[in-house]
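#lab-general

N.A. 3:47 PM
ok so I finally got the sequence cleaned up, no stray characters, all 247 residues accounted for. can someone with queue access submit it? mine expired

B.Y. 3:52 PM
send it over

N.A. 3:53 PM
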Amino acid sequence: MKHALALVTGWLLLFSGSAHATEPDAAEILKTSDRARGGGLPGIRWTVRITPVNGAEAEPERVLLLKAHATASLAETREPVRFKGSKLLQVDRNMWMSRPGLRKPIPISPRQKLSGQASQGDIASTNYATDYKAKLLREEEIEGEATYVLELTAVNTFCTYDRITYWVSKARHVGVKADFISLSGKRLKSATFEYANQLSHDGKTFPFVSRMTIQDALTSAKTTLEYSDVQVAELPRGTFDVNRLGN
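B.Y. 4:20 PM
back already:
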């Protein structure tokens, strides 16, 4: 009888252990998906064209050159001409802005509007795995593609959004949709992502974001961010030094 009880107990423990081992790890899903949006790479540069459409006020297109590594990014405006030379620097959870003629950089919030529906933090490289605590809510299909649905909660008030519902492709390991939510639970805007770019690093080739479309939750206002000229690059020491931002 004792042997039979021990055998049953062993099977139960084994089964329980196997079920736990196969449960998807929300934090790992998020960390893997960050790479396709610039997170977790040693150094990367790309160009982004920001186009506001259907807004109540006409805004010009903006073209920015981005440089980033795991914890920092630098964006320099190339177009329109009147904003040329303006820079945005993000280091960890801090962000500064500079422009020609300004004596020293100004601290700003990643939540401040940049252009159309895009916030300052939307153009930086994505490190959701660092900035948010992830919880797996469920699995569901988005336009026929199986996804994990994650609930992301900001780890501090410096993050661009308080909460995000994030759909990550199970097959491609990239974020395909996001709802950006306020602290009170109100949906502020949504975004969808496309990945026509390819990037090679460490002997592997993987997709990289080519378009982000941000839709306001209450109006028809929409903004597209198109990414091009993406390449892994060694960035000089000092690229992300706030004391050199005005140079």
